[in-house]
Structure to design on (157 residues):
């Protein structure tokens, strides 16, 4: 029997908001990922726009509050990472990063995407994945209860 265990590290910071927070929280709740970085922004609410009203005003009415599948609130508190890491400064404005498929992330001067590997949080994520020291919570277990496993990194090229 072959058991394939896929583990992910999701990088988060104070700019991670809304849908990205929900995805990160869902992956963590499903024990499919470890969150690494800073506490997320805490945008877990939807609004409905009503208007235009008299004088051109509009009204925003909050209609829903998001929680993760394990009912962890997101709005106004964000998600606390499993592993804290303060990311380095962002790439300079106008830097263009080439993706493996040839697409670009942002306009400007072209740089090698490997430059992103110099970020301290990206380095920490890669290190944890290659060392096999990623720990996830056991399903149904209380806080602090973790399951360790080895991760084998295979070069698919």
């Amino acid at each position: 029997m072959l058991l394939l265990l896929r583990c992910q590290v999701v990088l988060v910071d104070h700019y991670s908001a809304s849908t990205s927070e929900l995805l990160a929280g869902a992956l963590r709740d499903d024990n499919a990922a470890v969150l690494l970085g800073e506490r997320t922004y805490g945008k877990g609410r939807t609004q409905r726009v009503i208007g235009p009203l008299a004088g051109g005003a509009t009204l925003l009415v909050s209609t829903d509050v998001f929680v993760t599948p394990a009912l962890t609130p997101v709005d106004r508190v964000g998600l606390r990472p499993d592993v804290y890491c303060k990311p380095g400064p962002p790439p300079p404005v106008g830097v263009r990063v080439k993706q493996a498929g040839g697409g670009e992330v942002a306009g400007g001067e072209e740089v090698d995407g490997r430059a992103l590997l110099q970020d301290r949080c990206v380095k920490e994520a890669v290190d944890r994945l290659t060392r096999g020291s990623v720990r996830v919570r056991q399903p149904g277990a209380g806080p602090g209860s973790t399951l360790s496993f080895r991760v084998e990194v295979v070069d698919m090229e």
Remarks:
- The chain has one domain: 8-147.
- Confidence is low (pLDDT under 50) at residues 1-5, 136-157.
